[in-house]
Write a structure and sequence with these properties.
Blueprint: E1 2-4, E2 24-31, E3 37-43, E4 55-63, E5 78-80, H1 81-89, H2 100-112, E6 116-121, E7 127-132, E8 138-142, H3 148-162
Antiparallel strand pairs: 1-5, 2-3, 2-4, 6-7, 7-8
Helix pairs in contact: 1-2
């Protein structure tokens, strides 16, 4: 699963204010009315209602850091399931409880692809520890009950990200 996504903006989507180094920025992935995935970066101090036009897939908060000329911005444009997991589960970012089911699903999917390695539970048993295969970074994801209700709940977020499932065309019955 991958899609093209713009890097962190330089200005606030809602107010037009230019971000300064260290500003807290709320990032929102939204499905636009056109069906495309967009990104809305908004200062945390600004009312984010305008940023959430469209269907919100997920949100996270980061500290703004200006890109340097030598950095390859094109590298960050391709958002994969792996990159989305790393972004949402970043220990330095503020956790958003609404992202937990998506993180649990991505963790399971990336574990099956061998991009994440399970390392057991935290001592309190509340979080699953994953090790990222490439970077060896550890991520703690809340443990969840992966039952039928979970997958029904996560289906809405996946529909926003990938689009709703295409309805199969019924075969035409021949009158022979």
């Amino acid at each position: 699963m991958e899609l093209i996504l713009h890097p962190l903006a330089k200005t606030c989507y809602a107010s037009g204010h230019v971000f300064a180094e260290g500003d807290r920025v709320a990032c929102h992935l939204v499905r636009e009315a056109t069906g495309e995935i967009g990104r809305r970066d908004v200062l945390v101090s600004v009312d984010a209602a305008e940023a959430k036009t469209g269907q919100v897939l997920c949100s996270w908060t980061v500290s703004y850091k200006a890109r340097h000329a030598e950095e390859n911005a094109g590298r960050a444009l391709k958002l994969t399931a792996e990159n989305l997991f790393v972004t949402l589960a970043d220990p330095a970012a503020e956790p958003a409880p609404a992202n937990t089911p998506l993180l649990q699903f991505l963790g399971l999917m990336l574990e099956r692809k061998r991009l994440l390695r399970p390392r057991g539970l935290t001592p309190d048993g509340e979080r699953q520890i994953y090790e990222h295969a490439k970077s060896h970074q550890l991520y703690e994801i809340p443990v969840g009950n992966l039952d039928e209700a979970f997958f029904i709940r996560i289906q809405g977020q996946l529909d926003l990200l990938m689009g709703p499932p295409k309805t199969p065309v019924a075969p035409v019955a021949s009158g022979a």
